[in-house]
Structures are given as C-alpha cells and as structure tokens.
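Page 42, continued from yesterday. The earlier attempt failed because a stray header line got pasted into the input along with the sequence. Redoing it now with the clean sequence only.
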Amino acid sequence: MHRLQNVSAYWHVMMMSAREDRANPVRLIGSAALGVMRMILLAAIYKIAYATQSHVSLPYANAVWSIGLYFALIIGLSTRNVFKLIDREVKTGGVEAVLVRPIDWRLTKVCMQIGKNLLEVAITATAFIIALAIIVGPPDMSFVTPGFIAGYLLLMLLAIIASSALFVTVGLTAFWLNDAMPTYRIVDKIILVFGGAFVPIALLPQVVQDVVRYSPFGVYAASTQLFNPGLVKHLMPTIISSIIWTVITVLFCNWVWARVQAKIEVNGG
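This time it went through. Structure tokens are written below.
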C-alpha cells in the first residue's frame, strides 16, 4: 500500500506539471513550429550527407523519420533538463528540507520535468508526422513487426530512465562543484554526438556502429533507429546491452545520492 501511495504521489507531481504546460498554448505552438523548422533543416542536411554516400542500407526517408521522432519523443521530454532543476535547488539550499519526505526527491524532479513536457511532446510529434509525410514521404515499414515495436518501446523506456539517472547524477555534482554547468554541457554534447542525434548511426562505418551499439551510448543510439531495418538483427543484443548500462547508470546515481545524503548529515550541504 505504501508503494502504491508513492506511485500516486509521483503521478500527481507529473500531472501538476502537465497542467502548468497547458496554461501556455502560445509557447506550445511556437515550440512545435520551431521544431518543424529544425526538422526541415535537418532533412536537408541529411539529403546532402546521403548524396556523398554510395553504400547506405538505411533509406533516406527512414533516417529522417527515425531522427525526427527521436527529437519529438525523447529529446522533447527534456530529461536532460532535470539537471537544471536539481542544480537550482542545490544552490538555493532547498534539498535538506525535502529529505524527510517519504518520496524520493530525485524522482520528484524527474516527474516534474517529464510532466512539464508531455503535452508539448504530443503536439510536436503530431506536427512532425504531418511535416515529414509531406517533406520526405512515408518510410519503408516492411520490416516492422509487433515484436520489433515492443522491443523499440522498451529501448525508448530504457533511454528515458538512463538519461534521467545520468543527468540527476550530473546535477548532484553541484554539491561538490562551484559550477556544475560545464560538466552538464560536456555530458549533454557527448550523448548527442555518440547517441546518433547528429549523424545517423547507419552512416557510420560498421566497426563504429558495433562499438557504439554496445557502449554506454548504445541505449541512446538505439532510440534514434525506429525505422532502421538494420536494427532488427541486433535488437535483442541491443536490448540486453541497454539494460545492463541502464542498471549501471541507476546504481551509480544511487551511490552518488547516498554520498550526498551523508554529506548533508555531516555538514548540512
């Protein structure tokens, strides 16, 4: 019963943040429009990149659709910005007051961040689907099966969990660093580069693809490949690798959080 109450509390936090998002329709529409403009620019860049490649197994339309929905669904949730929520509260000294609450302060911040962007993600994803259908046409989905969709949804969930835990950890470094923002920027850019947000994984040499797929960045890279037929044969190994790295990231976050709590108990932050 206690666990169910905690789940209800986290859900309440998420929905409260979602209500705040609904109160600003102009920002939601503007954000979706800006996202579509960026997607059009990215599609043009990919077109140029494909023109320089002679042997690419991933169809152009599939590459654009994959990265478009990745930006709309994964990047749109902005789990990386949970760092800013935590960094701000650490600087204002508000962490100590919430440690006595029965719910996890870190999960509260993650739920706030995700809830804040739920409606924006839905609107942006709808706008992207319409825009991509017009710009590049429908993707090739002949390889898509219910099992593939289930596996991909699991990879998306793992990417959200891993990203949340990673950026919570980066935010907690503010307890030791005078300015944790440089650390955040470095981690954020590394994830974007090696996670396939800038360059489709399918355009990289096969050796690099294999290294990225089973590295800590594999869970992020996999979520950029919804319409990549090449992911089918690597789906199960990618899921296993992603689970392992996600568990490691969460455990490391818990270890850092335990160190933070010990620090607060000793000298109050």
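Notes: The CA atoms of residues 99 and 261 lie 8 Å apart.
Reminder to self: strip header lines before submitting.
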